[in-house]
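We were asked to recover a plausible sequence for a given structure. The inputs and outputs are reproduced exactly as logged, with field labels preserved.

PROBLEM: sequence recovery
POSITIONS: 316
GIVEN STRUCTURE:
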């Protein structure tokens, strides 16, 4: 009798363990396949049509850039090239005329790099500190400062062009890369401050309070707590700034001289040139080269971009 009781007690103890092991092991057997419903057909069909709609111009650009002018004159823009040539790409980069200069997009590319890198780094650094201060440090006048930033984010920058020209001229930096970098930095800070402020406001407030109790100051909390947790929103800010600054045309043509023109201004000069034969293959190659950098940045960090937008743009 005692053996039976002992056996039953052992079995009762083993049963929960066996059940737990089955739960951890997960379901067994083949994974069930979802039926292709009408809803799924509608969703995926719409996505395919939209994707093709947006990819078709890119396809035409690539195919045209790989053709020679005799083949382009045949008129079939959708046909792949019979004979692939990279001469239009070489000419667009190194020898296409952009006004009086015939050195292609290479000079404009390095000008754009010299403009984009410091403008992006400085504006993100200042905006992240602004957002951190507005979210965690209730200083006097914080709400007024935040309101001014919000208003500044939605003022059309076209109405500010002439006053900025006067200011830069009085400072002696009109027509220089330094002046253009300052303009991009200032105009990028309002919206970036809003993004950083919303992101930092969504972080657990207990972390900030615990750091304050431990005696951490403004910069210690910023560098040791906030920055390590803020990679997604920094990626969002980087993509927004790189895309906006690299693709800018108006500021580049207004605030700089021809030797400092960014890539977009030189692209416009190539495409709208009225001298000689219209070389559509060179124009397409130049357009793809100009847009390659922001596309590369987005595709490399696109997943973090979505995470940062979801975490920082709808909180606060």
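RECOVERED SEQUENCE:
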């Amino acid at each position: 009798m005692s053996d039976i009781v002992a056996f039953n007690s052992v079995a009762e103890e083993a049963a929960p363990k066996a059940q737990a092991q089955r739960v951890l092991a997960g379901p067994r057997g083949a994974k069930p396949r979802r039926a292709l419903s009408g809803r799924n057909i509608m969703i995926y069909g719409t996505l395919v049509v939209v994707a093709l709609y947006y990819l078709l111009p890119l396809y035409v650009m690539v195919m045209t850039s790989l053709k020679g002018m005799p083949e382009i004159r045949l008129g079939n823009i959708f046909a792949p090239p019979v004979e692939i040539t990279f001469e239009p790409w070489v000419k667009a980069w190194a020898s296409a005329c952009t006004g009086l200069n015939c050195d292609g997009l290479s000079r404009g590319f390095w000008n754009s790099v010299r403009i984009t890198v410091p403008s992006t780094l400085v504006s993100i650094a200042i905006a992240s500190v602004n957002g951190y201060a507005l979210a965690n440090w209730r200083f006097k006048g914080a709400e007024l400062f935040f309101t001014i930033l919000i208003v500044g984010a939605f003022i059309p920058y076209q109405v500010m062009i002439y006053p900025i020209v006067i200011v830069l001229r009085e400072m002696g930096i009109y027509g220089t890369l330094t002046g253009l970098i300052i303009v991009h930095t200032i105009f990028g800070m309002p919206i970036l401050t809003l993004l950083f402020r919303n992101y930092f406001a969504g972080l657990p407030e207990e972390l900030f309070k615990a750091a304050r109790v431990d005696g951490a100051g403004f910069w210690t909390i910023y560098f040791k707590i906030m920055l390590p947790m803020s990679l997604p929103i920094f990626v969002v800010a980087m993509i927004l700034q790189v895309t906006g600054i690299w693709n800018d045309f108006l500021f580049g043509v207004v605030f700089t001289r021809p030797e400092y023109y960014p890539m977009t201004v030189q692209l416009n000069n190539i495409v709208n040139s009225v001298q000689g034969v219209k070389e559509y293959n060179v124009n397409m190659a130049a357009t793809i080269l100009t847009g390659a950098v922001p596309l590369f940045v987005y595709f490399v960090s696109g997943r973090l971009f979505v995470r940062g937008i979801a975490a920082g743009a709808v909180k606060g």
